[in-house]
Every structure is written in structure tokens, then in C-alpha cells.
Amino acid sequence: MKTKKLLLVSICSLFLVGCGEQTSSVLSQASSDSSVTETSQTSIDSVLEASSLLPSSIVQEDSSVVSSTKEEEEKTIIITKAYPGLLDNSNGNINVGDDGYKMNNVFTMMKGTTIDFGSKKTISYDGTDFSSEGRFKLNGAGSTSSKSIKITATSAGILRFCCQSASGSDSSRTWSIAKAGEDPIFTSEDGVSATTPDYFEFNIPEAGEYYLYSSVNGINIYYLDFTQELALGKETGFEINSDNMQKDYLIGDDISLANLLANAVYSSGARMEIKPADLEIDTSAYNKASAGEYQIGISYKTYAKQFVTVKVHAVSAIKSYYEHIQKSSGSKADAILRTPTIYRVNDAISSENIIVKAVTDDNKEMNITSRATITLPDMTSAGKKSIGVKYSNNNVEHTADISITVLDLTLSLDDKEEYNLAVSKEVTSEGELINNVPTFSSIQKAHDFYKSLKASNASITNRMNIHLGEEAYEEKVYIEIPNVTLIGSLNEANHPNTTIAYSLHADSVDASGNAWSTYGSSTLSVNKNATGFKAENLAIKNTAFNTMDEYNNCNSGNKQAVAAVLDCDATFDNCYFYGFQDTLYARLGHQVYNDCYIQGMTDFIFGEDVEAIFNGGTIHCLNRNSTTNGGYICAPKPSSDTSVQVGFFFNNMTITAEEGVTQGTISLARPWGKFARVTYANCTMPDAISKKAYGDTSDKKNPRFDQMSGNLPTNAHFAEYNNTGDGAIKTAVSGGSILTETEYQALVTLVQNL
Predict the structure, then answer these.
(1) What count of other Cβ atoms lies within 10 Å of the Cβ of residue 394?
(2) What is the pTM of this model?
């Protein structure tokens, strides 16, 4: 086993005052070869096995007491372990919210992380191989407040962990250790492996709260343990941690004690996990046949009994949900799963993406998908039909059927270059012919009708124009088939008079309990199969935040709210994109934006392996109400230095700033990934655009090109050419370059040949 040791303090600093020389040598051996040899003075007990009573508790390995002539000098070596295989996975993956997820008295998952039981690794520690049964996902660049693991150290000790990059192609992701709110006390020099688990040791120098995270991008942790030697003192009592225990039940449910943890408390302030067999659990008050609150008693030795309150709920109704997010692995995009409501005769239909929840008497929703009965309709005839959804509880049957429409409508596309569908809120029946054009009540239903046509004839390549009225469509739209055009209307000022709007941000939670994520928050999602997508005269809005006050007052750690995400070749003409943070996610493919308007304040034009060409139009920067940080326009993350040739190319655009933005505070770009490429050419820039060089510390205002996620603008490809206005520069500053005429013409040729 390859272990990378990072020793910031000497081994001797791990010992409490009064340690003898021989004791020090014993623990030194433990730190060097990951095992402790039994001697006349020290031995390590075997790992405590997780019992059926507490299948989710993290195993804590504690040693016998170090011999000493003075009782107060007795010390115990404690090894506390954490890996997903020790947790209860009966309810699926755990997405950690604002309160964190306390796994034991040492390790706490912070918000924004995921306990994923679907990806396993074989871990080799202390001469034993075992399966991790999952991973702790640090979902992106973290900090001491999110996307990290907190280590609560009662004393100095040794932290060991096994990790791997969340991307199978990126081995540059480093990890850091920091105290709360402080800069890292250590950052690894090398990134973690992208292909095989890496093992690390780190010496925690003293008692305190420490955080393990990557400031660059996501990494996966498969195993952790923390070894510390404590002078426990006298046992003074015990405490219960029921934070992660299930406390809500439906009538008829048996009680579950999974995730109930108990610690013995000592006069030194130290805690040690109590073996489940040493606890007495009294569930006699629990009555699963009747709604109400019940007290579960927990006793340990002769200390006063402690109680946990649980509640049994009556079911008042059930709900069916048929769109949600599925978390990705690695750097792949999350998947948006849904059940269509428009079909054609003999189409296949599935209940796979349906989630059913019980609504309780106090309006709480609880997932009952596995207990509900879902019945699919007959698809051999046309008409309005239902996917039957029912659930019985306490002798009452509840239903939440999903209405669908099955059409007997076949269009001849082979003899037409293009075909037309329409969307109108005034339609009385789906597929109704209005002016000889099939018309639907929503954009998604029109799309799904065409998707059904293509599914029945894979050779169909016709472009489908979907005409939208002078209306506001409140819906989340998924485009999943090629050659679709959405066509809106214009008002007298030649601005879009058709709006698609939806309200989600990255931390919004779907019916499955997953956060929608940045990718999933998008109002318009165009996936990788929808190549050739076009949109004309549309306003596309994410309405999660409509004012800066709404944005600032949101307590979520992830406020990204995307208007549109594009995973394929696409063209937009005269379209307006509205948002605050992460407005336009131009993710993959070759995309062209002609005379478009994009609004936001933080990284509001961003993407990955994309050639994104912007011709004309406006970039509008909102007021962040900061005198130093006016925001960031563009944040690219290509996967390699050759994955894009041009990247983001802004040509002949007008950049504007909302009234009140402080002069010289807006950054043109920052590298989300180290291979970022951005060029601003022939653009008009206001005085709100910073002219400051990267590295200039004369004031706290943003530089013209800033750093991001550990990536420096000086290593990226940020360039300008022939820009004008009060925010333009003629001489390059650190972080960017000014193209020569020859370089600019070469770039134009590249753009033309994409």
C-alpha cells in the first residue's frame, strides 16, 4: 500500500504531558507502519463491530489503557473510522444540507456533500482489504463551510484517508486542511489520482476543528480514520446524538434505531462511542397503530435516562412527481429524469421516473415510492388516460393519478424540409389543429409529440419549428431530439415578447431529495442528443431571484440559477437570458449567439468544452452592491489545452453595467479550469470594467482578469483586441494579453472554420 505521509509536527507532539519514553516509541511505531504491536505497556483492542441495533454508527476502535503508576496519567489510543459501508443505506444516497451530517464525534459531512452508496472501491488498510460500499463526495471546490469534511479533534492525532479525483481525467485536484474560516494550514503539492485510490496521512497538530476539502474541484473520499491518544479522566455521563436518526413514521411503520449514536463523556471533555450492546433502548411507548409523538428511552449504566422524540403521522393524501435530477459520477452532467405526458398510440410507457410521496396530517411529505402501486394504461388506443398511482394506509386508499394524452396522429415528414407545431394556452385539446397546425398547451408537450414521431421513424431528420405565442410559459423545458427550433414573437421595440420562465436554484430540492444542482436548475435544458437546436426571439429566465435583495437574503450555500444549459451545437438569434449567478451555461459543442442579451453578476456566462461565439448584442452586469467586487462575467473550464480552439469569443458586443456599480470592479473573466480561453474583440466597455493587473494589491478591487478554483489568469488564455469605451485598455495587464492584428486575423479564421 502506498501511503503519502505529511508530517507537520513530530510524533512526540501527539502525547499528553507525562508520557514516558517507551510509550512514545510504541505510538511512533503505530504511526509509521499503520499497526500497533502489543507490548507490556500498550495494546489495541479489535475494532468494535457495528451491531444490528446501530448498523449506521461509525466504528470506533479504542485501545486498552496505557500503564502508569498514577491513575490520572492513564491514556487511551482511540481510532475513529468513517466510510459509507458503516452507514444505513436503506433510504439511498444522502445529500447533506445546511445542518451537516454528523457521522460520529469526530467526522461530520458539511453541506453540499453527498454520501453516495453507488460507487465502491476496495480499500487496503492495516493489511486488510474491504469494500468502501460507497464514497463521500466533495462536490466541487470546497471551503470550511461547505463541500468538506469536518474533523473534531480532542487532541493532536493522525488523520488517514483514501481518496480519488471525481474526474477520471483530472489528476490535478489537490486537497487542503484548514481551521474554520481560516486559510489552509496545508495544501498537497500534487493532485490526487484520477484512476486509482490514493492514501494519505496528515498529523493534526492540536485539538480543534479541522476541515478536509479540495479548493480546486471535486474529490471522492472512500475511507477516513483519526487516531488520537487521550487521558480520558473519569467517566461522568453519556450523551445521545439522534440528529441522523429517522424520527418521522407513517401509521404502521416499525421504528428504526439506525443512525442513533451514543457517547460516554469524560472529565477531560473527551467522548468515546458506546458499544450498542451496552445501551438499553426502551421502545415500549411507541405505538405504530396510532398517530402521535412518542418517547424512546436510552439508558446507560446508572446515569439518568435520556429520551428521543419520534412521531407517527397519519396520511391525508399522496402526491406523484415525474421529473427529478439524478446525480452524476465524475465530471459528467447530472441527468434530468422525467415521465412524458404526451404519447402516440402504441408508444412505450414506463413508471421508472415516478416518485410518490405521502402528505401527512401536518403537511409533511414522505417518500413512499416503493410502497405505492403504479399501474400503466393501455396504449393501444387514443384518448385521455391516466397512470394509476395508489397507496393504502390505515385502511384508507389514496390516489394521485397522472393524466396523459395518447394521440392517434401521424404526420408525413418525409416530403417536407421543415414541419411546424404550435403552442398556445388557449388550446382545448392536445394536438388540436389550429390553422392546420397541431397545437399543444405547453412547449414540452409539443416537443414530446415530435420525439414520439422520431422514435417511430429513426430516419426522420426534418427540422421541427415550434411556434410560441405572445405569452409567458411557466415551465421547465427539456430538448432531447435534434433539429428543433423554438420561435417566439417580438414587440414593437424588437425585443422578445415570448418568455419561458422557471424558478429553481442549485440547492432547490427535488422530489427524490436531491438538490437540483447548477446543471439541473436550468429553465431551458438542451441535451447532447439535441444537436442543431435553434431559438429565435425568446426571453429565457430563471426566476429563483428577481431582485438583489432576494438573492442576498437566500441562505442557501449554492445560489446558482441557470436560465439555459446547452450540451450540443446550437444557435440563438435575438434571445434574452436573465439571471444573477450562472445565467448562461454554454457547456458543450459549437454554439453561436447573434444579437443576444445576457444578464447577471457572477460567472454568468460559463461553460466547459465549448466553442461559444457571440456576435453583437449586450452583456449586462447587475449591481452587487459592493465597492470592491462588481462581479465576474465569464468562467470557462475546458477539459484540456486542446479540447477547444477558440473557447468564448465575444465580438462587437456592448457591455453595460447597472446604475450603482462601482468604477473598476468588474472582472472580464476568471478561469474555472486552468485551460480557459476567452477573447473580447471590438467590444464597448464601461468604466465599471476593471483595468487593474492581476497581482496588484494597491486596493481590494477586482482585477481585470481574476483567479478561480486555484487557477491563475496568468496561466489561462485571456485576450483582447480593439475594444473601446471607458473600460477599454490599449496596453495589456497581467492576466491577459492584447492581440496583434495578425493574431486577431488568425483567430477570426479559426472562428470561421469551426
Answers:
(1) 12
(2) 0.78
